[in-house]
Amino acid sequence: MRFDIATLFPEMMENYLTQSVVGRARARELFTCECHNIRDYTLDKHRRVDDTPYSERQGMLMQCEPIYRCWQAVCNMTRSQPYVIYMSPQGKTLTQKKCIELSKREHIFILCGHYEGIDARITDKIVDEEISIGDYVLTGGELPALVLIDSVVRMLEGVLSDPDCYEDESHYSGLLEYPQYTRPEIWQGEQVPPVLLSGHRANILKWRREQALIQTARKRPDLLESYPLSDEDLSIITKAADDFNKPEG
């Protein structure tokens, strides 16, 4: 899989892309990623890539030509036309389902906006999809782009030791992840649930499933609106809610 990132801050991107799981996967060439400085594609002698918008709005807007020339250079270099994502607060919110979908693509070009955004004509011309990481505004698209890359790369074959490392996590199946524990067995009087010490695989899996339902119902009940709950699932959630709401003593 290949990523190309169009940004005004390639050094910022490179620093993250050499670290931790993503950095190790990149070093092993499980994916490739090139960061392109949009300023390198401007024809302005001062390397300007922005100008004032045709409106009364304050701020600066990124121009079409440098971005288009950057995209064109990547297309020519790779002899392909990548899937273009613009990181934008106007886009659809990034979800685990979307990450799974994107992990199956061979080549993604990520456009990082800045200032007040980009000229709408470039969006119409080359962008396939706008993606947001939440209903808030950042100063640029670099952090959202790194979030997207991290969340997609970790699902590529060979990046994590086993598919369970991500298939068991929050949101992959539509539920939040069950609680997890490590040593010591007892910490400040609180004990690890005995079922996890039992070694009984079937009982542990059953406990994980129940806890995932309970965690989701308590923390993100909105996720259950589109989740296919069975009668048994509903019973587990109802019982947990009753137990949670019981007065102490």
Please describe what this structure looks like.
This protein has helices spanning about 10-15, 20-25, 65-80, 95-100, 120-125, 140-155, 165, 200-220, 230-245, and strands spanning about 1-5, 30-35, 50, 60, 85-95, 105-110, 130, 185, 190. The chain is of the alpha/beta class and about 250 residues long. The protein folds into 2 domains: about 1-155, SPOUT methyltransferase, trefoil knot domain (Alpha/beta knot); about 170-245, tRNA(m1g37)methyltransferase, domain 2 (Trp Operon Repressor, Chain A, Orthogonal Bundle). A hairpin with a 2-residue loop joins strand 8 and strand 9. It is elongated.
The percent of residues in helical segments reads 25-40%
- Structural class, by secondary structure, is alpha/beta
| Overall CATH class of the largest domain | Alpha Beta
Q: Kindly report how far apart the N and C termini lie.
A: 57 Å
Shape: elongated
- The helix count comes to 9
CATH architecture of the largest domain: 3-Layer(aba) Sandwich
Number of strands: 9
